[in-house]
Each structure stands twice: as C-alpha cells, then as structure tokens.
Amino acid sequence: MNANSESEAFTDFTGDAPASGPTPGSFGGRLLRRLLSELGDPPVEFILWSGERIAPASSTPAIKIRVHDRATLLRVVRDPQVQFGDAYADGRVEVEGDLIELIGMIYRGMASTEGKLSLRARLAGWLRRSQRNTLAGSRRNIHHHYDIGNDFYALWLGETMAYTCAYYPSTAASLEQAQIAKMDHVCRKLQLKAGDSVVEAGCGWGSLALHMASRYGARVRAFNISREQVAYAREQAKQQRLDDRVEFIQDDYRNISGRYDVFASIGMLEHVGRENYAELGRVVRRSLNAAGRGLIHSIGRNRPGLLHPWIVRRIFPGAYAPSLGEMMQIFEPSGLSILDVENIRLHYALTLRHWLDRYRAAEDRVRKMFDDTFVRMWRLYLAGSIAGFETGTLQLFQVLFTTPDNNRIPLTRQHLYSS
Amino acid sequence: MNANSESEAFTDFTGDAPASGPTPGSFGGRLLRRLLSELGDPPVEFILWSGERIAPASSTPAIKIRVHDRATLLRVVRDPQVQFGDAYADGRVEVEGDLIELIGMIYRGMASTEGKLSLRARLAGWLRRSQRNTLAGSRRNIHHHYDIGNDFYALWLGETMAYTCAYYPSTAASLEQAQIAKMDHVCRKLQLKAGDSVVEAGCGWGSLALHMASRYGARVRAFNISREQVAYAREQAKQQRLDDRVEFIQDDYRNISGRYDVFASIGMLEHVGRENYAELGRVVRRSLNAAGRGLIHSIGRNRPGLLHPWIVRRIFPGAYAPSLGEMMQIFEPSGLSILDVENIRLHYALTLRHWLDRYRAAEDRVRKMFDDTFVRMWRLYLAGSIAGFETGTLQLFQVLFTTPDNNRIPLTRQHLYSS
Fold first, then answer.
1. Are B251 and B209 members of one domain?
2. Prediction ipTM score
3. What's the predicted TM-score (pTM) here?
C-alpha cells in the first residue's frame, strides 16, 4: 500500500486532516486493518473516500466496502457492531458484492470470541433495561416492529403472512408451501384433532390459528399485543367464516386464562425476555389440561449470548434468542416434560432467502412507503439474518412438551412423516 | 380399627412392647397412617406382625404390604425411601399385589413435593460425595454394578446384551427386535455411513459398536471401564471377525484421544456426575471432526433432582439422571449445536417390562448365583424403574448434536422413518 501518496487524496476529500501526527489516510487504514485482523482477515477490501484501498495481503477480496467519509470510518472502528449497520442504512458505507457472504464472514470471525460476555456486551445488557418486557415495555417493543404497516409486510411475507421460520419438506418447496408445511408440522407434533381447544401466545397475523381451525377443526383463542396484526387477523377470520371458532384477543400472554388441550407459541419467545421465562412456564402449566400438549418455536443460540446489538437497537428492541438450556428455565420449574426438540435453523435461512428476494424486488415500493434509509436497514437485517442462520450463529428450536405425567403420547415420531 | 385388642398380639409377636405410653400397635399404626397420608392415601393396606391392619378409609386396597416386625416398621417410617427397599430385599416386608403399581402410587404421591431439594435430599447429596466420579471413583462405582457377572445379565438382557433403553417401532416388537431398532435409530440419527470413524464412550457389552461395524461399515473405538464387559465385548468381536474394525479399550472416556466422525454414548451419562459435564463436553468437542456428529442417550428428569436414594445406595452408586437443562451444561460451554432431542421414556418402561419378565422367570437361577436378598433387591429395582418411567418420574433423552457450524445436516428427520 502507498498510504503517504494517498493521504493527499484523503485530505482533499474530507478537508479535515489533522495538522500533524500520522497521515490521516494511513491512520484510518491502520484502524481498519486491525479490525479486519480481529475478524481473521476475511477477503474484504475497504475503499476510502480518498481512494485509499485496504485489502488483505493473503487473499483476493471478494467484497468491496466503500466508506464515504472519515467520521463514519471512526464511528465504525469504534463500535463496529452498531455503527456499521447504521452507516450502511444511511448510505455512508456501501457494499459491493454479496452482503450475506460479508456478514457470514464477520459472524465466523466473531465466533472465536463467542461464549464470553465481553464488557461491551454486559454494558449492552445494562442499556437494554429500558427495553424490558414488562406489560408496558412489551407493548412498546412490539409496536416498534410489528405495527409499521401490514401493507409493508404483505410485500414480501407471501400469502400466509407468516413471519416465522417455514418448514421445507424439500428445498424445492415454495415459500407458501413451506409455511403451510410448517403449520402442519406443528399441528402433527401437537397431535391436534377436531374439537381440541387451543390457546396461542403471539399469533402474528393469525395464519396458524386459522389453519388449526379450518384444517383440523380446532377451537382457538389467539393472543397478540400488536394492534395492527390483531385487526388483520380478525378480518381474515371473518372473510374465512372462522370467527365462530377462532377468537383473536389483543392482550398479553400473561393474561391468558382458562384451560386448553394445546398451547402453541410460534416466534413469540424472542420477545418474552429471560426474566419472564419462569412466569411463561407457569402460564403454560396452568393453561394445560391433564393430557395437554404444547409447542414453543423460537430463534435460539448454541450457547447463551445477546443478539447482535444493531438488531436489538434498530430492529427488535427487547429481543433475545435463548440457548436450549435457557429455554429449559421455562419448562423445568413447572415440571413440564420435554418430548421433542427439533433444530431447523437451515429452514430459516431458506425462508429468509425467499423473503429477501421478494423484498429486494419490492424495494422501490418500500422506498415510497418509508425512505431510502429504511430500505437499506431492512435489507441489511434480512441479509444479516440469513448469515446468522447459515453460520450457526442463530438456531431455530421447536420444543414440544406435555404435562409432567401424560402417557397419552405417541410411541414414535413416525406420524410426523407419513403423508 | 381395634388397636387395643390387637396390641396383645403385637406384644406376643415381638416381645418388646414398651412398659408404658400409647399401645405399640396403635403407635405403629399411627406412624404408617401418617406416612400413607403424606403419599396421598394410596389404596394400600399394611398388615403388621400382630395382625393389625392399617387401610385407607376411602378406598379398597389393591395392594397389601406385610411388615414382619416392629424394628422394621420403625426403620421404614423413619427413612422410607431407603429402608423400604432394604426391608423388601431382606424379606422383612412383603408385597402382595402389583409391585410396579405400588411404586407408581408412591412416585405419584411424591410428585407433589418434587422440585424442592429437601434437607434429606441435600444430606444425601453430601453423603454421595464418597461416590464421586473421579477416575478412581468411577472405576469403583462401575465395578459395583457391571462386574457382578456376565452370566447373570445374560439371564434377562436378551441376545444383544444391551443394557439400555430399547426402541419399539411398535409395542409388538420383541426385546431383541427393539434393541436392534434402537441401534439403527441411533445410527440413522448419526447419519452413519461406511468408512466413518466412531468413538463410543461407555460401550457396555459392545453391541452398538459391533452393530455399527457389521451393518454400517464403520470403524469403532469403544471405551469402557468395566473389566467384565470389555472382556465379553472383545470375545464377541473375535467371534464375529470384527476385531479388525472394532477396538474395545478398557479406559475412562476422559482419556479418549484422536478425532472421529461420530461420538456416541448410550447410557453412560448417568455415571458421569454433574461435576464432570463440562469436561465431557470438552472431550466430545476435541474428538469431533469438522462435520462430526454425536449422540448422548441418557436417563433424565423433567427437572433437576436426585435419583431415588435406595437406587443410588444399593444399585447404582454415584448415579445421577439430569434434566435436559442440566445436560446442556455438557454442550453449551463447548458451543456444540443441538440438532434433535427425543424423549423415549415409554420405551424404557417397555424394555424394563421385558427384562423383568425374563428376570422373574430366572429368579431360581439368580438365587443360586447370589442369594434371596439379591433376588428381591433386583426385582424391586427393575419394578421400581418401570414405575419411574411410567409415572414420568424418569425420562429417557436422546440428544443429537454436531459441531457449532456444521451445515452438512439433513434438512428434515424424514430419513429416520423411511424403511
């Protein structure tokens, strides 16, 4: 590299070169080089506003990252986890090449230091207190993500409007087929049959509740604190003439009352907060009949750790993905019996790839609904999530359970795989 | 009840009636009545040496327990968990009726107080220190149970000599069929294929290791610290001409070296001790190739709790059955990724019923090998284990896992259920 000669361009470009000390170009370059080194020197080239290029010595860069100004570079180097995402969203850094591949490299680079909660992570945990999932906190956190417009989600979630990991019997399945297959997989695990009473905690736009009623003849009470989602779900129930069998209740899972044959919760646990796991378990336990079954489907981790701080700050306030051991804090204090755990993380990568394809095709419309920063922010979130599941940074656990001494359980899981 | 008149018989029978105070018959009766009340008044009648009968007021007793002397009654009332088993083994109490049903009632009665570690349980935990699973402690503990004679086990374990939970594709399967089906179920979960290298921790009499070599073409190194079992397994390998592909090593799992495609451990974890879970995880992690898979099969619990103290004292010194949350202490510190957990506790009840049937048919021969106390002790252990699995007091977890970022995993579990 020729940092000295390029420092001229740097100075010209930014106009804020310090009067003395190391030349700014080489200083910024050194910082980025150290950052890359901490990530195991992935094949990534930085191109600065000055034209200066920082590339790994040993490999041909597959991805180029353009950094448009010095202030952005300093912010990204100081707090890469949050600032890279923000700078990408604002267009102050741009990525040429496969965004998913880039984030995958970063995740793999970070994996070596995973497992220890760094000082920064602990600080982040402390900061997250303002996002605590109290009754009011949960409403605020859920509103932030899920109430930004059903029309927006309809652009890329597909017909079912299911905003959780689908289940691909084969990789050739369409998104819609895989979402239906997921619902059937869940219903079979729960041995759902006509006349069963179901309570659902966190029902999204209502697709599973409606599916359980229309295809299995179940009676469903479905809880959700997202106003927009409940309004949409109620309208669907009316249109499908299922409103005599499916009731959508705009309330917190902690206010579930009554007893049911089945408890289901698909993609809500991420918003529950670890501090509420034992309470969730008590809610489940008191809601289940003697031979009751339940299933909780959630993003998880191989070991305890916070979600990516940019995701928690910009996308999912208050969110947390537990390890399987942490999930057991729901079930064990209440004595619930785990029957089956399935990790389908590769299915979430497939689901997200379908979502991202549709999202990118709809970016012009998203831009009109919101703005360009929003478009890039959500693109990064979807791409980053794919990388998370493909690198094993994120898992997807379906946990099937029953009451402590229920013997009316299938001998094998064969019934899940007979068509 | 007519305690006064019967106290005469009591005095005649034992010859040790106190000179004053409440009449002994009614005193013993009251103690037993309180014990029954603490267990929720199961339909059980006690018949004392004196002829005195203590029966529940509200139900017709299905089971009669004869107590042959006063000292036994006092011991059983003072410490029922250990003393009942000892008194049954010695013939000082006898059970008329279904032993499994009786223990099932006791387990269900105890379930209401489960989840809290009582003072007694904590004391037991302290006492168990002498059974700690250090390298030497493990050898002592394993020798106690597994080295009492291959001929004895051959009487009731069936041809495979597999001394772990079988897998019944249907309840009509024979014990032998179910043991073979278990091995195939495990091998399919592990995606075992020809040429794979396997390390097995705790291989019993070697049936799985030999099965993996003969049916799947794997190369297996199988560890076990039981001298008798390893001797038997080596002889089997020779007879089956598999000794070029299966190596039985009389050593502790902590001394496993090398790298393998597959790690398997069926029914060893119960003897590992919670204090060694993280170390077991490190052994597993360092033993697995990049795309390595592993399976641990173990008796478990719905929530943390000690095994029945009589079992730990008389049958399995140093044994512990973890909750799934506790099992995660093996995997999470090493970042291993859980793919699949299956709870097959009802299969262990079926397996044990087959074992108990064969055991009872062979009791005369067992009596000749040992003595009558041994015969009754093992009958109680097998019957009690059936009750444990049928009441949900005990679980059986098969936990399938892989390296943190292995993507060479099947998309679904369909392959386990295609024939």
1. yes
2. 0.90
3. 0.90
